[in-house]
């Protein structure tokens, strides 16, 4: 410890220094990483709770950093948002994922189309190119708009004015589904939901944690039951995240949730993996 004057002592924190350096290093490395093709996408299946079939997947971006190995999105998405790189990075993810969804469809016609969910950052929402880029990407890949779902966090839409909602409305009119991600964490006014061009609520993992064991926490059950009935009365489908156990899956199915995602079914993985999972469902 070295004296920092007066009666205060400051302790050197090498870990905090290392984190700060890494953050700075990662931020400056981001643009070149996109050029060098260091990003890749893992896909996590979305499973229909009623019949257990794979209906699609969420695209989750990763960075294969030459020194640090594979970095999860929580490490670099905030940095990319801060620097604006999220716009070209997000466009890259969308294009790659949409092409992948088209490839699945072509391989896979007999079992029905697999849909693709892609996360949108708030910065992409306010970017003027969102609608035209999305149209170009869908047309370029030959994917129908209704095979695409864009996930927007609840917090990004809290208090959203009409200017912010306009591009989402345009996309929804074209047939793209909009999902409200991390639902339940943002304290949004439930009545507000009617104003949003949203078709799907993705219930945050924090709500399903109390259902890992059987019987579930009764308060958690009541809350989820209430959300599901509200959502269905507004014609919204409910997807649940973070399903890790069969007890959760079963209780959420009984509560009427429509679709589930989580380690119980599969961790995020390479695109070939999803194809295998979907085929297994189709044949057995
Ligand atoms: P999210 O959209 O809420 O994605 C779900 C996260 O939960 C993913 O973390 C996923 O790997 C993880 N997960 C899935 N199933 C389970 C489970 O059963 N248990 C637990 N404990 N976790 C589970 P991941 O891949 O680290 O992504 C973190 C966040 O990064 C995402 O949260 C999303 O907000 C953001 N993100 C990922 N890809 C993109 C992207 O392409 N663009 C943008 N803007 N954000 C992205
Ligand atoms: Ca998401
Ligand atoms: Ca989420
Ligand atoms: Ca999340």
What's the end-to-end separation, in Å? 64 Å
- How many strand elements? 11
Secondary-structure-derived class: alpha/beta
Proportion of helical residues? 40-55%
Question: What hetero molecules are bound to the protein chains?
Answer: ligand C2E, calcium ion
Q: Secondary-structure element sequence?
A: EEHEEEHHEHHEHHEEHHEHEH
Number of helices: 11
- What spatial order of strands do you see in the largest sheet? 3-4-6-7-8-9-10-11
Which value, in Å, is the CA radius of gyration?
21 Å
Uncertain stretches of 5 or more adjacent residues: 1-5
Overall geometry: globular
> How would a textbook summarize the main sheet?
8 strands, mixed, barrel
How would you summarize the topology of this molecule?
Layout lengths: L1 E2 L5 E2 L3 H23 L2 E10 L5 E12 L3 E3 L1 H11 L2 H22 L7 E6 L1 H4 L4 H12 L6 E6 H4 L4 H13 L2 E7 L16 E4 L1 H4 L9 H16 L3 E4 L5 H9 L4 E2 L10 H13 L1
Helix pairs in contact: 1-2, 3-5
Account of the protein in words:
- The chain contains eleven helices and eleven strands.
- By secondary structure, the chain is of the alpha/beta class.
- A hairpin with a 5-residue loop joins strand 3 and strand 4.
- Strands 3-4-6-7-8-9-10-11 form an eight-stranded mixed β-barrel, surrounded by five helices.
- Helix 1 packs across helix 2 and helix 3 runs parallel beside helix 5.
- The N terminus is likely disordered.
- The protein binds ligand C2E and calcium ion (3 copies).
- Ligand C2E binds next to strand 4, helix 2, helix 3 and strand 8.
